[in-house]
Design a protein that fits this description.
This protein is an all-alpha fold and 261 residues long. The protein is built from eight helices and no strands. Helix 1 packs antiparallel against helix 7 and helix 5 runs antiparallel to helix 6. The longest helix has 39 residues.
């Protein structure tokens, strides 16, 4: 279906964004800091904790999103989509109340699966870091700021299209998905204000944490959903092609994206 194709596109976009955009930015910032340290200390002791910190934060992002999803599932968010088995009530009197509780739960939170909330959180944090990057670029020069703004704009268009498909696929209505996208976009303005008032540096740790979140959402929330459905060979090829297209978008953006030197 069209929705599964868009979800496949989003999967490729998330993975491409992480490995072609976020991690290279983190490595650039970390290498710059590492080279600065070597100006003061020429001896090499292998990989220090400071050098490994971004990778550790990346892994912490994956584990944190795992914990959040466990909490969401245990609290009943999206639980209806995973309750194919379970105990059967022997009392007919309680059946009606259980059904009413299910309807209430589904109408509020039950229909929204944890993947939607995780994707929203990761997207909000990612937009926040984009805002900080724009603020940092404008502090360098006006032309650098404009270039960074244009780069973020073209980078976000395919990303947000994919996110919308993921939110709908994970149980949100179209209007709920639009609202979530609007709220997550506010993160960019908050990040920009934060960057203007507090810092001009690349938010390395925040980027690393976001990258871990994107990988978790793509591999633990989205891909299993695609695997649940029995697909024909043509559908499987189509999904793989859409993933490659999502990655290709990020390749093109990474090539033409301005880099700080």
């Amino acid at each position: 279906s069209l929705l599964r194709s868009m979800v496949s596109f989003a999967t490729g976009g998330l993975l491409g964004d992480t490995f072609l955009h976020i991690i290279p930015h983190v490595n650039e910032a970390n290498n710059g800091h590492h080279n600065h340290d070597h100006d003061h200390a020429h001896h090499d002791h292998g990989h220090g904790l400071n050098e490994l910190a971004p990778q550790l934060v990346f892994l912490a992002g994956i584990l944190s999103f795992f914990v959040v999803e466990k909490v969401l599932r245990n609290s009943g968010v999206g639980s209806h989509s995973h309750s194919h088995g379970g105990s059967h009530s022997s009392s007919e009197a309680t059946t009606k109340h259980e059904k009413e509780d299910k309807i209430t739960n589904t109408s509020i939170l039950g229909a929204i699966r944890p993947g939607a909330i995780l994707n929203f959180v990761a997207d909000f944090v990612h937009n926040f870091t984009d805002g900080m990057a724009i603020a940092a670029a404008f502090k360098v020069s006006e032309s650098a700021g404009i270039s960074m703004t244009v780069a973020v704009l073209f980078h976000e268009i395919p990303h947000e299209v994919g996110d919308f498909a993921v939110l709908v696929n994970q149980g949100m209505t179209k209007w709920q998905a639009f609202g979530a996208q609007f709220v997550s976009a506010i993160g960019a303005f908050m990040g920009c204000l934060f960057g203007v008032w507090f810092t001009s540096a690349q938010p390395t740790f925040v980027l690393s944490f976001t990258g871990g979140g994107f990988v978790y959402v793509a591999l633990a929330s989205i891909m299993p959903d695609l695997l649940e459905h029995n697909s024909s060979l043509m559908e499987t090829v189509s999904q793989l092609l859409m993933m490659c297209i999502g990655i290709s978008f990020m390749v093109v953006i990474a090539i033409f994206e301005p880099h700080e030197h």
